[in-house]
Amino acid sequence: MEEVTKLICISCPQGCSLEVTHDGSTLIKVDGESCKKGVDYAEREISDPRRMVATTVRVKNGFHPLVPVYTFTPVPKVRIQDVLKELRKVELQAPVKGGSVVVENILGTGVNVIASRDMPVAK
Ligand code: SF4
Which pTM does this prediction carry? Predict the structure, then answer.
């Protein structure tokens, strides 16, 4: 059944208001976009919405007890809570190198989780 969903395109700071007509996950038309990226964004949002995840994980013997981490690419929106839960179980060993892979292919999503910064050993 055809329905209209209102979205804000987050592909650039302009934040166009989109009216997306779709039938389930099939895109019918998009109104309100200022460029093609808005149509691509709408299509992704109705078929496979994804988001970047940023959080912290524990570090044993680190200068600080936590290090910030992020997903290298967006993960399916429906898996975000599972990803956060999985990352709560992780405890790294200091030193941690910024940019290093903390968890590879988290929960089989094909997405690696990366350390945002160095975390040296506690003094
Ligand atoms: S539709 Fe284009 S101009 Fe509008 S917010 Fe998206 S990327 Fe930016």
Answer: 0.83
